[in-house]
Design goal:
Length: 346
């Protein structure tokens, strides 16, 4: 069977995707699978790389296609990836990859693929939609105000008053559709709120303003289709106040604590909320569910990431490793879940 590994992509998380892809290439079971590399450039071109039948000696196999300038692969029309007896692994993060667009395309060309379907991907990527669904499910989350660009332009004063009437400073302002902390800022007063909204609108016409809180950040990994399994929570131990893009990917200021040192009750609640949110969003395959935990042991669900960072050392695979599921076996499970969902739909 062939695994079509889609990586790179048009989002800010392009480089993270390449790292995840290399980890997968090193761990996939070549006794059963061949891997067709398909790289998506930052400007959205699809490049067909080599077909791997064994573990690559080094990452030059991916570097071949890293750069649009000296890309050696062949530029292809996306629909030509279609073939029988193949499963797509859309190892793409953020908009244009994790948000339902690629998933819709794969549905259209009728190929099985790893991870969440169209609706779950789109709702998981959109912070406003996620909030609405969690609210309907009765899952605790921080207070928020959705702020659409049109309404903001029409009457900014009303938006300020609405935010200040519902929330206290500091507030967190985010584009609705984004990831990796891109476009997110913290606002301490009205002027900063104004600037933060302008920043968020660079990325999306939909923004969300949230109550800023001081909290630890804990995460639970979820795996399954109908039969949903969760891991113990892990903690992102920050030595920075705001877990932004730089601290996530550039400065490496993140330390993971697995399992997180939390009470039994918090542990249980985190797993319960993660599972409930996943089911409410219609999850399949995998997701990483992220929480805030205050020093009063209040737990707030922040978001679900339907295609979380997937290097061997990322939180998602590390949480499963701790539960006894090895990285290679995790990939195998994801392939089987993809096939199962595809068969059920036929
Ligand atoms: P992304 O999808 O980009 O990861 P998040 O909502 O997870 O967006 O926000 C990124 C980071 O910003 C979080 O991991 C956290 O460190 C910080 N953050 C986000 N919202 C809040 C909030 N309401 N209060 C305090 N910190 C927050
Ligand atoms: Mg996210
Ligand atoms: Mg996040
Ligand atoms: K998300």
């Amino acid at each position: 069977m062939k695994i079509v590994l889609l990586y790179g992509g048009r989002s800010a998380e392009h480089d993270v995707s390449i790292l995840s892809a290399f980890s997968v290439l090193n761990a996939i079971y070549y006794d059963y699978y061949q891997v067709q590399l398909v790289f998506i450039t930052k400007d959205g071109k699809w490049v067909k790389g080599p077909l791997l039948t064994e573990k690559p000696k080094n990452d030059s196999v991916l570097k071949l296609t890293w750069d649009t300038e000296d890309a050696t692969g062949e530029i292809i029309s996306p629909s030509t990836i279609k073939e029988e007896n193949a499963v797509v692994f859309p190892l793409l993060h953020g908009p244009n990859g994790e948000d339902g667009t690629i998933q819709g395309f794969l549905e259209t060309i009728d190929m099985p693929y790893i991870g969440a379907g169209v609706l779950t991907s789109a709702c998981g990527m959109d912070k406003i939609m996620t909030k609405y669904i969690l609210q309907a499910a009765g899952i605790p989350q921080v207070p928020y105000v959705p702020v659409l660009k049109n309404l903001w332009k029409e009457n900014p004063k009303q938006i300020f008053e609405q935010c200040e009437g519902t929330l206290l400073y500091p507030m967190f302002v985010k584009p609705a559709n984004m990831g990796s902390s891109v476009g997110i800022s913290k606002a301490e007063n009205r002027e900063e709120l104004q600037n933060a909204l302008q920043e968020a609108y660079k990325y999306d016409t939909r923004a969300i303003v949230e109550q800023g809180i001081e909290a630890r950040e804990i995460e639970v990994a979820i795996l399954g289709n109908e039969d949903v399994r969760t891991t113990l929570a892990g903690e992102i131990v920050k030595d920075v106040a705001f877990y932004d893009y730089n601290s996530k990917y550039i400065d490496n200021q993140i330390v993971m604590q697995i399992p997180a040192e939390v009470t039994e009750d918090v542990q249980q609640k985190a797993q319960e909320f993660a599972k409930k949110a996943y089911v409410m969003l219609g999850g399949s395959g995998l997701s990483r569910c992220d929480f805030f935990l205050t020093n009063k042991n209040e737990l707030f669900l922040n978001e679900l990431n339907t295609m979380p960072g997937f290097t061997q050392y990322s939180m998602y695979p590390s949480l499963w490793e701790k539960m006894g599921l090895k990285y290679g076996d995790l990939i195998e499970e994801l392939i089987q879940l993809a096939l199962k969902r595809y068969e059920q739909r036929q």
